[in-house]
Amino acid sequence: xxxxxxxxxxxEAIPLRSRSNSQPRGLFLACWLIGSLMVGFVVVxxxxxxxxxxxxxxxxxxxxxxxxxAIALSLEAAFLTALLxxxxxxxxxxxxARSRSRTSTTIAAIVDLPLAVPHTVAGIALLMAFGRRGIxxxxxxxxxxxxxxxxxxxxxxxMLFVSVPYTVNAARLAFEAxxxxxxxxxxxxGLGPWxxxxxxxxxxxxxxxxxxxxxxxxxxxxxFGAVIMLAYYPMTAPVxxxxxxLRFGITKAAxxxxxxxxxxxxxxxxxxxxxYGRAITVGTGR
Amino acid sequence: xxxxxxxLDRLTVxxxxxxxxxxxxxxxxxxxxxxxxxxxxxxxxxxxxxxxFHSPRQGRIVIDGCEVTRLPPERRxxxxxxxxxxxFSHLSVTGNIMLGLHRMPRGxxxxxxxxxxxxxxxxxxxxxxxxxxxxxxxxxxxxxRALAAEPAVFLFDEPFSALDAATHERxxxxxxxxxxxxxxxxxxxxxxxxxxxxxxTALAVMCAGTIVQQGPVHAVSRGPASRxxxxxxxxxxxxxxxxxxxxxxxxxxxxxxxxxHAVGRQTINxxxxxxxxxxRAEDIDILPPFSDHAVANRLAARILHVVxxxxxxxxxxxxxxxxxxxxxxxxxxxxxLAPGSMVDIAISPEAIRLLPPDSGWLGATE
Lengths: 286, 366
What we know:
The complex is a heterodimer. Chain A is mostly helical.
């Protein structure tokens, strides 16, 4: 290419460099110090927890069949929750991102509602709606034989209710960031509306959607309040840990907690790597 | 129209409070229409309607002899090129071009992509992603992708905004070469006058959803029909005058104690003697000192200011009324023009355009 192209690249680089140089040092240092207290608040209890149980108690927790089953159930239910969130939340996010009507603003607020509702309250509400004689539970039982109370479906209902806002919001932001005119360009290139959505819009929003699903998954695994109202049995990992704490005290509960923590963090890191790792490849070329 | 090209026939579109009114446009093979107008004039809506994103209330859109008024965008065979060229960031250069070929049998796509990459000189970028391309490389990729779909017409919406002057100039030249070579008709939307002159074979001036004037670029830019068009096309000197007489194609007007003669077809109505005079700054000649040969419309003027803009200088005069002229900065230095001094200026009668006095909304929008 000609000279002009190189000029352009150098020009791009200059503002970035000068911005980091012009950072006011005192302010930056103060913010950094204050912020590190926040990081400490999050990290110190977790490290302390991880360091507390003895190797023997960890090993015995790992051999506990009930606990292993509970963790497996949590992972499975959270996975199904994320799947449902993707199936129903992503199309909703797209309509919210592309509509400017008052209805869509209202719906966006409704989607955020679970974030404001205390989880035990959510659990009671779900229990009433999805119970045997509930407004949704009765037809589900009659039509599909689906029972929510004390079942996997109940666990998923509790998890989905509190965690779906993360997927909808992250996906909506991702869709909003896509210029609608790019969709127009795809249409003029000969792609139909569905094909445009699947081949252009969805891949462009992929990173945001995956981030949302990761958050939904993480939130679903950790849900306790809403789940325990609907399904004390079968026990998910947080319910199992709570029971261990009540029956055997903190030592046993701590060992189980560390186990759950390790599994969750491992998955969280893995998902984030999947979501961002691919995106980085897209950004820089192969 | 049955041949190649695009035709809008009395096209009317309503979008809430905004509307496009009775648009008539015809662009044939090898022609390039530039639509120019202020923000909110409806330029982009016009392109979007041609591409199929708004349904017209009335009128027809005909592309290559087929009426497409009710067809969805994917069946209209138009190429829509945006600012930044609308490349898809999740696809490589090859992937972007492939998208334009998705109707072609799978087996032949590879060859066609290779051909397009070669044609646009972007073979070395095949595996790169749009974020790492320069504006010029993006343009070539965007054009290659658009051409892959074999469009009947190109629609460009502000293709060069936000570029530095040198890149702008080079990309405009490349685009012009491309369109001249392919002969595919094109419609541009812009508010850049230099783009309008450099790219267009025809010019349409839009205001509030209506085409207020259209014709060959030169005809429109030399013969604006209203104050609005003159102002939009960069005519610097517009002032009121009184029509004193008209005989054998020569009109005589008076303003601020000076008398000017104008020739050529004028668009004034005959009911009023009040007119507007429009003169482009570059059409005012500064005469060398002591030149006493007779020229038409020779005026004595006092220089008010001289602003050096680089290649050109802008000079303000007072000769009964205030006028602005553009001259080569080199000449300004040679003639030693300075504020306060007196010079003679001349205005060719062909360069004087008489317009109807301001009336109604067209004059008021500027």
